[in-house]
Amino acid sequence: MNVLLVGSGGREHALAWKLARAPGLSGLHAAPGNPGIAQLGDCHPVRAEDGEALLGLARSLDVDLGVVGPEAPLVAGVADVLRRNGVQVFGPGRAAAAIEGSKSFAKDVMTAAGVPTAEALAVGRAPCVVKVDGLAAGKGVFVCETAEQLDEGLRAAALFPGPIVIEELLSGDEVSVFALADGRTVVPLAPAQDFKRIGEGDTGPNTGGMGSYSPVPGFGAEKVAELVDQVHRPVVEELARRGTPFVGVLFAGLMLTESGPKVLEFNARFGDPETQSILPRLEGDFLGALAAAAGGELAGVELAASDDAAVTVVLATGGYPESSDTGSTIEGIDAAEASGALVFHAGTALYGDRLVTNGGRILGVTGTGATIGAARERAYRGAELIRFDGVRYRGDIALTASG
Ligand code: AMP
Ligand code: GLY
């Protein structure tokens, strides 16, 4: 099978890494890809959001399956353009991707489907959470425990275009639960935990994600299946009922509250950096499952996870999430890989033959092992070997889970 992968982040490098191992793969192409993906397949200089250009590329390469990684192209309708023109795509069309692109649409679908979520509030009074309605790369949510934080949150949210939504503040452990969907059938994947805050001890502003691990202790396959029945399946059914079937991966960000799991958000794609911890554990025919989802044939497909654990540490620039960095030389990736870690490129570029920084989150370093502790050690051993100007990472990824 000849695959075109759309996107250029760490998640896409992890997808490419997994797809490159699939026996059924005959060609791997990426648009635009990144220097890590370029080691596994052919990268093409086409923007991820340019549906028409991607269609032209897919046709010229005679692609069998398009896999769209990030949210922006999905919300922009890239999957629709490809699908309408006869290219099989793993990834929802614009209407179904609104489950991520619009917090108010997601609330509406959850209410209709009877899915437990935080209650929407008509007015903001601390404690509460202020959310930007549209896409904000994980940076449009402001948790306001005090009136001062609410002032700040409202001010910060006002800097984004579009409306805001306000909801009750929930507390509990968070977990990311993923299920493949073909429009009707859902297939659960292993869960992961993400570390959203920039600072150790979950302090500071939210980011795209600073690390992840899988599995999640106390949240085994049975619980995941139960949760997918309670959350993902009714949403997929509701979207089908509305005539906008969801084909791709539905990602629920959940809080495990005292009164049961509640949805914080839906995403219409794989998580980043959750994918970097989930895919190294995934067993079975991943490419076959993506193709089955794209073709409406997921019934009977199962994807198991190995007993191993995986931990991913994100290496970001000094100014992230406020600013990014370009052009600083990155060294030590070979040594990190030689130490047994997987290194996924997120924000890198090649300047001549020099690998340089090109973004906020630069690399993900993933360790695997028999326990979360062993995986964690391997991830940090790898991370310590990598150097670039201003490199920063959290030292506490998966720390409590490995105890
Ligand atoms: P979201 O992008 O909606 O997942 O929000 C990002 C992060 O903000 C979540 O991972 C939570 O840590 C936090 N968050 C979002 N909604 C709530 C809520 N209703 N109560 C408490 N924390 C929340
Ligand atoms: N890591 C959270 C996300 O991908 O949205």
Q: What does the secondary structure layout of this molecule look like, with pairings?
A:
Blueprint (H helix, E strand, L loop, with lengths): L1 E6 L2 H11 L6 E6 L9 E2 L7 H11 L3 E4 L2 H5 L2 H7 L4 E2 L3 H8 L1 H11 L6 E2 L6 E5 L8 E4 L2 H11 L6 E4 L5 E10 L3 E3 L4 E2 L2 E3 L3 E4 L4 E4 L6 H10 L1 H10 L5 E11 L2 E8 L6 H5 L7 H9 L14 E8 L8 E5 L3 H6 L3 E4 L2 E4 L2 E6 L1 E9 L2 H13 L19
Parallel strand pairs: 1-2, 1-4, 2-3, 4-5
Antiparallel strand pairs: 6-9, 7-8, 7-9, 10-11, 10-16, 12-15, 13-14, 15-18, 16-17, 18-23, 19-22, 20-23, 21-22
Helix pairs in contact: 2-4, 5-6, 6-9
Mean pLDDT: 95
Distance between the termini: 43 Å
Report the major sheet: 5 strands, parallel
Sheet/helix structural class: alpha+beta
- Percent helix, as a range, is 25-40%
The gyration radius over C-alpha positions equals: 20 Å
Low-confidence stretches: none
Structure characterization notes:
By secondary structure, this protein is α+β, with helices and mostly antiparallel strands. The termini are far apart. Strands 3-2-1-4-5 form a 5-stranded parallel sheet, sandwiched between helices. A 5-stranded antiparallel sheet has the order 12-15-18-23-20. It has a 4-stranded antiparallel sheet with strand order 6-9-7-8, with helices on both faces. The structure holds adenosine monophosphate and glycine.
